Amino acid sequence: ASGSLPDPTCEVKNHCKDPPDYWTIHGLWPDKSEGCNRSWHFNPEEIKPLQTVYWEVVSLLFNQRFFKKHPYRKHEWEKHGTCAAQLEALNSQKKYFGKSLDLSKELALNSTLQKLGITPSTYYQISDIKDALVSVYGVVPKVQCLPKQGGEQVQLLAQIEVCFSKDLQLQNCMDPGEPAPRGPEARPAASLGLEVCKDGVLFYPALNKTNH
To answer: Where is the active site (predicted)?
Structure first.
């Protein structure tokens, strides 16, 4: 499972419009793309009961409301949900999206960061953020950044992945030094230009800052 900031490139580019001022769900992804049923196509009727829940999906490429945009729902199900559906707890579209929302509520990333004193528009050591999250969740998350570009001085905090076992219990995320799972579905963040934050300083950008 992964939580994303509202488009960290809003700090340096002019393509953002009214980003949310809180962390959002990016997705719930299996480590591997084995046993996926690609013939199981997305059916929006199956998740209508969930549409009263507000789910924002934000990436470096777009900023849109999840339950308002059919193409992204289709993408998440057909690329990731059809693989996750091997688990009984995720074996329908309603279960897959509903469990994603449940896990997000349980993690409560927004309030957790606030309680830890980790606030936007501030510089941090990556180790301090990881240690703080470990103190709450009891497992090591994967903190991802937008690498330094152009005249930027530091990497930007962009995404926090929290990992679960097959029975959906929290577990340590893969150490950056370990080999990455293979297949395009295994590394969704990589296609967005994100990477595991390097040791040292990062900047936690303002959640709702834009330059327009």
So the answer is: 26, 76, 80
Distance CA 36, CA 158 (A): 28
Q: Is 0.90 topped by the overall pTM?
A: no
| 80 counts as catalytic | yes
Catalytic residue (one of 11, 26, 56, 185):
26
**pLDDT tens for the chain, residues 1 to 212:** 444 444 433 433 444 455 556 787 788 888 877 789 989 999 988 888 776 444 443 332 333 444 444 567 788 899 899 999 999 999 999 999 889 888 988 999 989 999 999 999 999 999 999 999 999 999 999 999 988 877 778 999 999 999 999 999 999 997 544 443 333 333 455 556 789 999 999 999 886 543 22
CB-based burial label for 70 (10 Å; 0-12, 13-18, 19+) = exposed
Can you read off the two tokens belonging to residue 151? 């005249």
Catalytic residue (one of 11, 56, 80, 161): 80
Burial 104-133 (b: 16+ CB within 10 A, else e): beebebeebbeeeebeeeeebebeebbebb
